[in-house]
Predict the structure of 3-hydroxybutyryl-CoA dehydrogenase.
Amino acid sequence: MGSGIGQVFAMRGYDVTLFDIKEEALRRAIENIKWSLNKLKEKDSTIDVDEVMKRISVSTSLVDSADSYLVIEAVFEDINVKADVLMKVSKLNDSIIASNTSSLPISELSKYVREPERFLGMHFFNPPVLMKLVEVIRGDHTSDRWFNQAIELVRSINKFPLPVRKDVFGFVVNRVLFKLFISACSMLSNFTPEEIDYVAMNELGMPLGLIMLLDYTGLDVNYDISKEALKRGFDFNCPVLAEMVKQGKLGRKSGKGFYDWS
Ligand code: CAA
């Protein structure tokens, strides 16, 4: 999601640097952003692809983040990986530090940053460029000043900020969405993904079916969220996710999931 989030900020005039340890990931991120901007330009000729691209740079070294006003961490949903990145970033930065986590508590992640009052959650939805909502999550130590500043930043990129003042599991959206995912998952023994999604789209009015949405956001991501939920005492078990992730079926990103995306 990092590239999509960076794209949104660049489209609203901010200078953005994308960080990854792998150059290949950065190359792919730039390709994805170009594809997305050209796609958007088909419907809105005022979008200047070159101008937006000029505002985006890439780096494999977090040292280049040192003068940033805002740093958004969007690495894997794994507390050790996130902790490592947050520690490094917060040693270098006096910025607002935000995590795009969907399931890890902000207050727990805040242990890894130097100034927890500047740390909060900024949870985007896929694809960030099209989805209007951003949850802004306040951890136990986030100060009013930086929480309000983050809400203003979200408004400045033309998104709708949803202030989450209590750092509860799943925040607001995933707390609701995961109940639906788990119901859909339990129906897979009797119905096909197409049948379940037909109902979700045609009867519940969802833009994407529930099973397709699992594929769309990544089966690995959803598996990680379900593991975190189970750890925290929520009955969010979907055993087929573990099996599919083990087989390398990660949904849209790997070409195969419940659906064939190749
Ligand atoms: N950039 C630019 N264009 C894009 C794009 C992107 N990143 N992604 C898709 N598009 C384009 C499509 O190619 C399509 O182009 P054409 O019209 O030329 O075919 C166009 O956008 C329209 O797409 P759709 O026809 O699929 O449908 P839509 O316009 O009605 O809506 C959508 C698009 C908003 C993405 C809709 O499909 C949707 O709401 N999907 C559900 C997304 C969702 O629920 N996301 C949240 C998941 S949960 C999460 O992310 C968080 C978590 O914690 C796991």
About this structure: The radius of gyration is 19 Å. The CA atoms of residues 188 and 196 lie 8 Å apart. The chain has two domains: 2-164, 174-254. Residues 36, 39-40, 102, 125-127, 129-131, 174, 207-208, 213, 217, 221 surround acetoacetyl-coenzyme A (CB under 6 Å).
